[in-house]
Design brief:
Helices cover 34% and strands 20% of the residues. The protein is of the alpha/beta class and 263 residues long. The protein has a domain of 176 residues: Rossmann fold, CATH 3.40.50.150. A 7-stranded mixed beta sheet has the order 3-2-1-4-5-9-8, sandwiched between helices. Strands 6-7 form a two-stranded antiparallel ribbon.
Amino acid sequence: MPVARYMAIAAMPLSCGAPVAMAATPDELEQLVRQQAEEIRLLRTRLEAVEARQTQDSRVEPQSAQLPAPAKPVAIAAPPPFDPAPHIILPGPADASFVRSWAREKLVPTSTIVDVACGSGVPIAQALIEDGFIIFGIDASPSLLTAFHLRFPGVPVTCEAVQDSVFFHRVFDAAVAIGLLFLLSPDDQHRVFDQVANALRPGGRFLFTAPRQACEWRDVLTGRQSRSLGEAEYRRLVETSGLQLVGCHEHENFFYDVIKSAT
């Protein structure tokens, strides 16, 4: 076949991206077609590789969440010793209400009651005064007794340490000591029982508070070392002093109800 030159106008998407016009012989045209086919093959191969990678990524299972390592066994510590501080509550309206109910039940109206460590008189002495009982106050704090006297100017008070008090050189129908005993040493606590026993008439009553458990702690208000001797020891001490523990009452504070033998 004779080689004839001719003009071929072809618009082909080459790698440069724009259609071109060219004059070519059949051999040159065939070479260009092969080159274009090779470029198309390469592009198709790249496209297939990209699609295969995307398909593989979509099939990859998500990694399971990493579970935390099992906790190491921890030795269980022994429970801490009893802490009485949260259980020691300053006398409040609820305590005054209990003392008032106790006095109404155990005593006759106008009975004489000595408030041991009376403080300012609020709320214990105040509740008893309002109910018509005859109150005497003992406390070692001059400032608290001044506040007591300002509130209740007609009530006899004396500034003495309870364990050394002469208790007005008289006897009483009852005594109350709310929030006192555990602030004293064990020896002084014993002396208080002896002093109260001597100041009560036969059949007289004594109501005091202290934690039921035997324990020690530092008082948050006074900073003093405090000691509860515990129910069993308090029972022994009151009996040693000629008194008898006849009841215990769990309230906001723990109350011990004591009586002096009538004989």
